[in-house]
Specification:
Non-ribosomal Peptide Synthetase Peptidyl Carrier Protein, Chain A; globular; alpha/beta
Amino acid sequence: MKIANIDLGDKPLFLAPMEDVTDPSFRYMCKEFGADMVYTEFISSDGLIRDAAKSRAKLNISEAERPVGIQIYGHLIEPMVEAARVAETAHPDVIDINFGCPVKKIAGRGAGSGMMKDIPLMVEMTRRIVEAVHTPVTVKTRLGWDDDHRNIEEIALRLQDVGIAALTIHGRTRAQMYRGEADWTLIGAVKNNPSIHIPIIGNGDIDSPEKARQAFDRYGVDGVMIGRATYGRPWIFREIRHYLNTGELQPQPSVVERVEIAKRHLLKSVEVKGEKVGVLEMRRHLSSYFKGLPDFKATRLKLVTLFDIPELLSTLDYVAQNWGGFDSTTLTPPPLSHDL
């Protein structure tokens, strides 16, 4: 599969852009485990053109992440065009337009999936951005606004006509938010439309190697984008690639391996963002790596309250020592030697 001149190989796997999740350290970990392409957190066009520090910081990408996309969102054409130009100065491989976020504070003012209520504006905004930058432009969107407007086939054709290089489709309407199951039949219909010649990437509910393979085999998509299932599980890319190549399921990482992953992630976060911010922003990840461990409440509390890095690393070592024998095939965890 290619996006413009970017060769992503056969059946590529994408990390979805997620606010407060896909920061540089998490993107680094997902690349380490085999993500073929990653995206920044989505960035407000208003924040970029106002030169807001938080928005500008999200343009921080590294060579190790490539290929990497920067995703922007907004509801007005001129600020979005200017934001695309600003994003291009960070030299991403792709500029992605967010027409899919369903959150009320974004969609409610016409940005994200709110743009699906005004398809002519969506198309014109896309055309203007494509014309304004030299970087390939892609779009991420949904099936439509609601069940009465599942018009993704029309949208896909119109966006293709104005020059996008690829389209990612989340298999829900905006009205669904994240409820119910993603409907891949319409994603497949877009991909198999004979008038569609750009790559189509499917997104929604991919949380296992089997589902990823089904997306490729049943619906024919060019790539699969994985979002919420990566949270606390960056190794899902390794699992899926192994299954696609061999048909065999890999065992889940042991607690000891998860501890080592968490340590690398923590140190990368501190390297990128400094000690204070790096530790604070790792808290949402640290407890997720060990979700499901029994009798873990006190240890989880330490992981999400400590600031001292040596103490955090020591606590992670304690996890390995005391839960190291617990994995998906162990029915009872090892006894605790003491309470933290």
